[in-house]
Amino acid sequence: MADPVVVFDNVAVSYVRGVEAISNVSFRLGPREVVFLLGPNGGGKSTILKAIVGLVRPVRGVVRVFGVDVKSFREWWRVGYLPQNATTFFERMPISVSEFLRASRVVREGLDPIEALQLVGIEDPEGVLGQRIHDLSGGNLQRVMLAASLVNRPELLLLDEPTVFLDQNGVAAFMQLLDRLRTEWGLSAIIATHDVAALSTLASRVICINRGALFDGSITELVNSEQLCNIYGFHVYLVKHGH
């Protein structure tokens, strides 16, 4: 069996002493595997991603990336990360899309900015390159943030609410892109979301988080169980759209 890309071993994280944002979370992410973190706001999804990239440190347990304790990991070009609300980081910064993507590329084998924009479905990428980031529409800004997370051709992709600002067609294109990169790049990914409907057409592995890991299995198993009710605290109806 191939070595796991990410290992969470009985991890707890606390922002306030005595109060754990996540408790006793354990899971493994395998090569070429795409896992969705599902749960309510404040349930700990973002905290898990932050722990993987070393932005928060566990008060208990161990996080490993490519077999290395995250405290000692240094090959961060192998990891692409799109944090939640990343679009707000550039609201007042006069930086162009070209400058941003070139600064984000740290390896010679990375994508050219034009390639990165084309990859995420930006129309007229040459025209977008010269625009300032805070002048972009919400949808294009989210695509530029995704392009930045992919520009180094990472082996692990961590995305926090990546479909915000995307319409239904944009979400479908995003899912197709993930499947393509998993095949072509050998990409593994963890995607945090609270949007149950966005996952309704996928038969992917889902880890449900509400401070602790409440479920780990396929989306089909999840929607046929009572776990969604337990996770959200009220009954959740899954509506599949046929258009």
Given helix and strand content, the structural type is alpha/beta
Distance between the termini: 40 Å
Mean pLDDT: 86
Helical content stands at 25-40%
| Rg value | 18 Å
* Helix and strand pattern: EEEHEEEHHHHEHEEEHH
Tally of strands? 10
CATH superfamily membership of the domain at 6-89 and 156-232: P-loop containing nucleotide triphosphate hydrolases
Which regions have little confidence, pLDDT < 50, spanning 5+ residues? 234-243
DSSP strand (E) fraction? 25-35%
Task: Write down the overall geometry.
Answer: globular
Main sheet characteristics: 6 strands, mixed
Number of helices: 8
The CATH topology name of the domain at 6-89 and 156-232 reads: Rossmann fold
CATH architecture of the domain at 6-89 and 156-232: 3-Layer(aba) Sandwich
Q: What strand order characterises the main sheet?
A: 6-7-8-3-9-10
The CATH class name of the domain at 6-89 and 156-232 reads: Alpha Beta
Summarize the structure.
With 243 residues, this protein is an alpha/beta fold. It has eight helices and ten strands.
Describe this entry's structure for a reader:
This protein has helices spanning 45-52, 97-104, 113-119, 125-129, 138-150, 168-184, 219-223, 227-232, and strands at 6-16, 19-29, 34-38, 60-65, 68-69, 79-82, 156-160, 188-193, 205-210, 212-218. The chain has 243 residues and is an alpha/beta fold. It has a domain at 6-89 and 156-232: P-loop containing nucleotide triphosphate hydrolases (Rossmann fold). α6 links the parallel β7 and β8. α2 packs parallel to α5 (138-150) and α3 (113-119) crosses α5 (138-150). The model is unreliable at 234-243 (pLDDT under 50).
